[in-house]
Amino acid sequence: MKTTFLFVGRRAALSAVATAVLGAGLYLAVRPATAPANGTIASVPVTRHTLRSTVQATGVVRAVTGAEVKVGARVSGQVAHLYANVGDTVEKGSRIASIDDRDLRARLARAQADLAAAKAQLAIVRRGARDEERREAHAVEQQAQAEAELARVQEERAATLVARGFGAAEELDRAHRDARVASAKLDSAASRRALVETRFLPEDVALAEARVAQAQAVVDEATATLSFTTISAPISGVIAQVATQQGETVSAGLNAPTFVTLIDLDRLEVAAYVDEVDVGRIKRGEGATFTVDAFPDVEFNGTVTAVYPRAVVQSNVVNYITTIRIEDSEGRLKPDMTANVSINLAERKDVLAVPDRTLRREGGKTVVHVAKAGGHESRLVRVGLRGGGLTEITAGLAEGERVVVAETGKGESK
């Protein structure tokens, strides 16, 4: 006996079936069914749904830029104390480790002493001569002036006596000499007093001030270097790795030796690898959800923040990294967890929709087969959003109509 198979959309096949079989097929076409018991025609009603268009991708949880910090030492020395352990939660500014600082403290003390000496010298330069020196210089000048005056008077007297013939020429010569000597002493005393009054020039003051500034810079440098012996947490977070031990000697060169690695678990993101076919539909600001294997029943929410322009090619598969900011992980997520990501591209509520498997392409157009009494008819439809195995119908169908899902016969291989 030859078995006849029924195929969706082929009315010629339906007309060739016996009347009894046709009647059974029409009965099944109007049943609300997923698959009829006797395996002829399955149909579903056109109903309203909320559709979401999504892109599926696999990604990895990672720290955002600045949320993972490697903390190191900027000075060489022996690790005196190590306060951090893996898994500890630390606040920004809290101590992580300290380095033996005895030599640096001595260097700072020497720099502070040099600064004090430079400041004292500046004070001397600004003050100038002491009052006692000024009084002494003034007294010496007055004495020289008195002697010069006396020598001048004696010179005039000797000149008068010689002119009248009462004195010898030698006495006049001696008077001239004494007057010149007294005048020279007066000039010297005046110069001495002026030197005392203006002992330091403006250039001397500027030099002393520069030496103070130089000494202060050395102190600041020594103070900063000393502060480097205390390693503090630059951010709040969890200690992910400890790379040194107490008592170990570290050497600070071009690359500071890493003490610990800190991660802020509240600043994580997902790097999703999106296929090149889907990446063109993704835009910043779109919502996303994802799950991780550690919490398979928990759905985390996020927002697309960036789509990398450079592709990642692995095994000839082209993907683009799409970053997703995690809105609230409640501290459950950790870096390098695998994430199953669903990026929500669009959402429409209360729209007519049919299963994707009811749509067919005939003559380059999208059609469905609508179940009717006595068979089914091919009808042109206009489709909209797709998602979740459903397709929006914007024209061509009415709510409640039934569309054919499949036509199968017993023993048929689709």
Strand and helix map with partners:
Layout: H1 11-15, H2 19-29, E1 41-45, E2 47-63, E3 68-72, E4 77-82, E5 89-90, E6 95-99, H3 102-127, H4 131-164, H5 169-197, H6 202-227, E7 230-232, E8 237-242, E9 249-250, E10 258-263, E11 268-275, E12 287-292, E13 295-314, E14 317-326, E15 338-355, E16 360-362, E17 365-372, E18 375-380, E19 382-387, E20 390-395, E21 402-407
Helix pairs in contact: 3-6, 4-5
Give the count of helical stretches. 6
The main pleated sheet reads as:
6 strands, antiparallel, barrel
Question: Strand content of the residues, in percent?
Answer: 35-45%
**N-C termini distance:** 21 Å
Number of spatially distinct domains: 4
User: Percent helix among the residues?
Assistant: 25-40%
Which class best fits the helix and strand makeup? alpha+beta
Which ranges are low-confidence, i.e. pLDDT below 50, for 5 or more consecutive residues?
1-39, 408-414
Mean pLDDT: 81
Cα radius of gyration in angstroms: 51 Å
Number of beta strands:
21
Order of strands in the sheet with most strands? 2-11-14-13-12-15
Overall outline? rod-shaped
Structural key phrases:
414 residues; alpha+beta; conserved putative lor/sdh protein from methanococcus maripaludis s2 fold; Elongation Factor Tu (Ef-tu), domain 3; OB fold (Dihydrolipoamide Acetyltransferase, E2P); six-stranded antiparallel barrel; four-stranded antiparallel beta sheet; 32% helix; rod-shaped
